[in-house]
Structure formats: C-alpha cells, structure tokens
Specification:
Blueprint lengths: L1 H5 L7 E5 L7 H4 L6 H6 L22 H13 L5 E5 L19 H15 L7 E5 L1 H10 L4 E5 L7 H15 L1
Parallel strand pairs: 1-2, 1-3, 3-4
Helix pairs in contact: 4-7, 5-6
C-alpha cells in the first residue's frame, strides 16, 4: 500500500471509490480493485519497487473487476493519475469462509469514513472522487461533506460494458 500511494502522491487526480475488498483481490493485495495478477504484472502500479504474491497460491489470484478496471486505466494511460479505494476497506466475508464476499453493512461502511479521510490526508492536493457502484455512492452521501463528481456502474455482475463507457466519459472530462 505504501509503494502504491507513493507512486501517486503527486500525480493522482481521481479517486475511484469502490464497495469493499473481494476475496480474490484486495483481501490479498491491500489495494482496491487489484488482484495478485495486477500486483505482479502492472508496471504502472508502483514506482521502482517490485511487488510479490501475497497468497500461498502457485500462480497469481485473478479478480475480474480488477482486470476490467486496470484494462481501462491502461487504455486511458492514467494508471498513476487514479487512486483506488473502498468505502469499507476491510474484506467483508460470510460466516462460512473467508473465500466469500458479502455486501458491507451500513455500520461497516460508516466505519470506513475515518480510513477514507486518512487516505485523503495523504494528498496535498484535492482529488476528484467518483463512486464505483451503489454502495460507494451511498457511502459518500451518508458521510456528508465529500463532493462526489459522479457515479460509475460497478463492473461486476453484468456491468462491465457500462463501467467502461462511463469511465471513459469521466476520464475524458477529468484528465
């Protein structure tokens, strides 16, 4: 996380706020919308510091939403200009196993505000915040006092095409 934020501290212009870490991505990497595939294969993820696998798997874990988002960041050439974060930055899983995902509860999302504010304090300049998905949009509305510059459909569960179109529209306007 430190290397990821250092690589963006001066160049970041946009913050994409998601819902919560997935069991195949951020749960292992600590970076929203980032699975081990991105952690080990994306040159624009960090600066001059090699990253490594964090799970005990033989090959990197892959998460589809992460792949879609990083594909768009690379297509737009703006990976270092975008910070990825989650409204609830800890992995919400079901009782049966940590290899599940569940929607974070309202109280959990409220807990995410302090972490969000701490993240924003890392930047000396203001970032444009875009909500990725309804949970993020609702979190920003509930937190109050945080300007949301727009909503983008989450790429999961059939939202990939809409995410791509909306991200391109916002990127063209903000970058």
């Amino acid at each position: 996380m430190e290397a990821y934020l250092e690589a963006r501290e001066r160049s970041a212009r946009i913050l994409l706020l998601g819902e919560a870490p997935s069991h195949r991505g951020c749960r292992f990497t600590g970076i929203a919308f980032c699975s081990e595939v991105e952690l080990t294969q994306k040159r624009d993820l960090v600066a001059r510091r090699p990253l490594r696998l964090t799970s005990a798997q033989d090959k990197p874990m892959r998460e589809r939403s992460a792949a879609v988002i990083w594909d768009e960041l690379e297509r737009a050439g703006c990976a270092r200009e975008v910070v990825l974060w989650n409204a609830f930055p800890w992995h919400p899983h079901g009782l049966e196993a940590t290899t599940t995902n569940r929607k974070p509860r309202l109280a959990e999302v409220q807990q995410g505000r302090d972490a969000f504010e701490a993240l924003m304090a890392c930047f000396t300049h203001r970032l444009c915040v875009l909500a990725v998905g309804k949970v993020a949009q609702d979190a920003l509305a509930r937190w109050g006092g945080i300007e949301c510059r727009g909503y983008i459909r989450h790429p999961a569960q059939g939202g990939e095409a809409k995410f791509r179109a909306q991200f391109r529209e916002h990127a063209a306007a903000l970058l």
